[in-house]
Model the fold of this input.
Amino acid sequence: MTTFTPDIEASLAQQSIELPSWAFGNSGTRFKVFATPGTPRDPYEKIADAGQVHKHTGLAPSVALHIPWDLVDSFADLRKHAEDHGVRLGTINSNTFQDDDYKFGALTHEDDRIRRKAVDHHLACIDVMDATGSRDLKIWLAEGSNYPGQNDLRARQDRLADSLRTIYDRLGDDQRLVLEYKFFEPAFYHTDVPDWGTSYVQVAALGDKAMVCLDTGHHAPGTNIEFIVMQLLRLGKLGSFDFNSRFYADDDLIVGAADPFQLFRILDQVIRGGGLNNPDVAFMLDQCHNLEAKIPGQIRSVLNVQEMTARALLVDRPALAAAQSANDVLGANAVLMDAFYTDVRPALAAWRESRGLPADPMAAYAASGYQQQIEADRVGGTQAGWGA
Ligand code: PSV
Ligand code: MN
Done:
């Protein structure tokens, strides 16, 4: 069995992955959202479910909220509730994609009234961050256009810079803004923040507290995402990951499910660039569980990230550097592939047990009775969903 060095064990012990509150609600496609027994009916129940993921894995100590989906009367109370469930409230996600006013844009809108409304929403999100103790405001913008000529691309970019400046200036000393990019959807001709370069240009103009968020599902097929990871780390601007996986578009499937090798390559570059367990680089999931049970789906997800992290930590870096310097093409590739093909699951199970965690978190959750309990208890009311 592979064993871990004390350094690797220390790295594994530090790892944390933030969960999205919306992963616990019902979700689906534009064709159908299927209800699932036991689905939370409010943010409190979502947080309780997230606590289960952390309890069985030790990997997920915080939960991201989406505003207005997770609005509550008292965020101080929700914060206390999270602490009672062994987790804390994390990144606050703004939402300017579900209001009729934003049909033609939000932070880029031509109409000052609408643009001001979108900016004010972000300022309100920062008020929430003050109450929850959250560090990061994550901004993903659904804006763009569907037809060539529909909009003045340049003017929209200028208005975006202006809006972001107002939001940035409201951040506290310990707060940050992370700007997520996405190359299409819901707009199909252009989006206003389509790629890492545009996000970088916008956040670099703002200052040190603004960083790029990289959602692994937001690239064209075939994009070398680990190259982008390398570049953003090199520039000191990789603020966070939204991890998920995809076969076709922005599928939001379980991270590492569609392409474990890609996840390994990304984590290899994270480690190479000093981004692992670096407080500047937040690891988050951005997923939906349309068919599978949600809590086990989240447990599987954080375990996938942990597993590929462990494999990437096994890369023999001196041997890799020597082979690269010698232009030993096949030798260098073999060093990387040796680590990728190492089955770390038995070593991780033993390591978990040594830390008082279940060797098999999926089995431990299944045996805990929690799922049966929530299915029995959570009857009546309206189930939470993506977008509600
Ligand atoms: C947009 O596709 C996105 O990746 C953003 O992060 C949103 O906040 C999230 O999905 C909503 O599911
Ligand atoms: Mn995302």
Remarks:
- Residues 42 and 127 are 21 Å apart (CA to CA).
- Residues 112-132 form the longest helix (21 residues).
